[in-house]
Amino acid sequence: MSRRELREQIFKLLFRIEFNKPEEMEEQKDLFFEDEENQAGEKDVAYISKKYDRIVENLEEIDALINENAECWTTTRMGKVELTILRLAIYEIKHDDTVPTSVAINEAVELSKKFGQDGSASFVNGVLSQFAD
Questions:
Q1: How many domains does the chain have?
Q2: Structural domain boundaries enclosing 77
Q3: How much is the CA Rg of the chain, to the nearest whole Å?
Q4: Mean pLDDT, to the nearest integer, of 81-86?
Q5: For the domain that residue 23 is a member of, what is the CATH number?
Q6: Which of 49, 54, 52, 48 is nearest to 6 (CA)?
Q7: Of the residues 33, 77, 115, 118, which has the fewest C-beta atoms closer than 10 A?
C-alpha cells in the first residue's frame, strides 16, 4: 500500500471512534480489517494499527490543540469527518517525524476533498495552517 492509502485506512479506522465506545474499539479494529474493502497485508495492518493506537494515546492532547487553534470552533462543534482528519494530521505534525508538516497538511486537504463536504478542504487547511512551521 502507498503512504496515501495507508493514511486513508487510518482515517477510516479512526473515524469509528466517533460512533463506538472506547472499550469497543479493539473489536471494531478487528472488524475493520475483516471487511473486504479494508483488507491489507500483515505489514500494512501492523502499521495502521500502530499509528491508530498512537493517535488514540495522544487524543486528549490533540483535541486540546485543535480547540486552541481552531478559531471560533471546538471539537464538539466540528463535523466528524473534519475532526478525524484534523486529529490524524495534527498527530503527524506533532508526533511523527517521518512526515513533513507540509505533507501532513496536503494529505489532510486531499482526504477532506475525498470524504468531506463542500468547504471541508478549506476549513481543514485553515486550521492546519496554524501548525505550519
A1: 1
A2: 3-131
A3: 14
A4: 96
A5: 1.10.940.10
A6: 48
A7: 118
